[in-house]
Amino acid sequence: MTKALIVIGAGLLAACGHASATSKAPTARAVSVPAEAAEHDESITASAAPVDSDNAADERVVAELERAVELYRAFITRAGDDSAYAEAVARSRERIADIQDTLIFLEQGMKERGP
Asked: Interhelix angle for 54-79 vs 86-113, to 10°?
């Protein structure tokens, strides 16, 4: 048994900005792939990424976001009142506020899902 794989040539390159404006329109062609190779690829994909609960993934994200807030606060402290860093300090404060909003959202979702 074989599976069909659709290959898109120049269209992908054009979408990524690697093709010139004079490139031909993208064309697709079918390529036969032996079933063993397709099954092997599927088994690699299935075993490559362990499945976590949503809460476990969110807990890792929360930890990283909390670390980011610490780093932004450390920068703000080091920058002090130096006018050379005024814009960066303002952006850092905005990012801290965004992260705090995100943390609230994630924590509410974890509570709603339960343990």
From this structure: 160
Residue 59 near residue 106 (C-beta atoms within 8 A): no
Could you tell me if 65 and 102 are in contact, meaning their C-beta atoms sit under 8 angstroms apart? yes
Contacts of 29 (CB under 8 A, 6+ apart): 6, 7, 9
Output the CA angle 95-98-103, nearest 5 degrees.
Answer: 125
Contact between 66 and 103 (Cβ < 8 Å): yes
The answer to whether residues 33 and 2 touch, using CB atoms and an 8 Å cutoff, is yes
Tokens for 73, please give them: 């606060």
For 23-65, the pLDDT digits (tens) are 555 555 665 666 666 565 565 555 555 556 778 899 999 999 9
Residue entry with tokens 């069909």:
4
